[in-house]
Amino acid sequence: MKEIRQELLTGERALFQANDLKIYDSIFEDGESPLKESNNIEIKNSMFKWKYPLWYCEDIKMAGCTLFEMARAGIWYTKNIEVKDTIIEAPKNFRRVEGIVLDKVTLSNAYETLWHCSLINMKEVIAKGDYFAMNSADMTIDGLSLIGNYSFDGAKNVTIRSSKLISRDAFWNSENIVVYDSFISGEYLGWNSKNLTLINCTVESLQGMCYIDNLVMKKCKLINTTLAFEYSTVDVQAVGRIDSIKNPLSGIICADSIGEIIMEEDKVDVGKTKINCG
Fold first, then answer.
1. Per-residue pLDDT tens for 62-86?
2. Which string of DSSP letters, residue by residue, matches 114-160?
3. Which of 24, 26, 39, 125 lies at a C-alpha separation of 20 to 30 Å from 15?
4. Rounded distance, CA 29 to CA 172, Å?
5. Residue 209 — φ and ψ, nearest 5°?
């Protein structure tokens, strides 16, 4: 493979349609779309300072790189990209990308990031920004730290482990989500979703887990969680206290104690839900 080392690359489409190339310690300065339509590229310890660096690309490996704030909308319509030990400061990255590996990546402005993507593997990722992972599918996530509202809206087939999510309206309209050993804080968690499973998680939420078709919670702590489960079908095994529940549609709820139970006969068939305390 051809190599480029310590180059300052400027101008639009600086390496347009590059193939079989290794890039080391280089800077992509001004100029849009420097690697558009490129294939089989390895990029190490390099910097991107302008817009749209990797569009319509395939088989990309990046390590030790930096995408600065103006490298916005940086990786779109690309297939098979691996990013490791990298800081991405720019928003709106990863759009309609298939086959993504993110390992020890910091997304300091993850606004509208990972939209309509698929086949994603994430490990030890830090992200801050609203609308993260909207309409993405087939995601395996371990060790995600996320601060940002409206995350995973419309996502499908997602497994999350050992993560921390501070996110209002997380998992809205989603399907087939399983979360293990994680912390989630945010109002209105999981509304309008289908098949949401939380195992050994700690949840803090106002009006969380409502309007859900098949909510499963096993060995979960619900801290400061009120008005939960409205119009949801539930199988809930909570550890400790649930502050209040309201109008679940059907199923079973088990907890050590429940502060308030609101069951309105004109809204739901109260006989379809079994509640066990202690």
1. 999 999 999 999 999 999 999 999 9
2. SBS-EEEEEES-EEE-SSTTTT-EEEEEES-EEE-SSTTTT-EEEEE
3. 125
4. 39
5. 60, 45
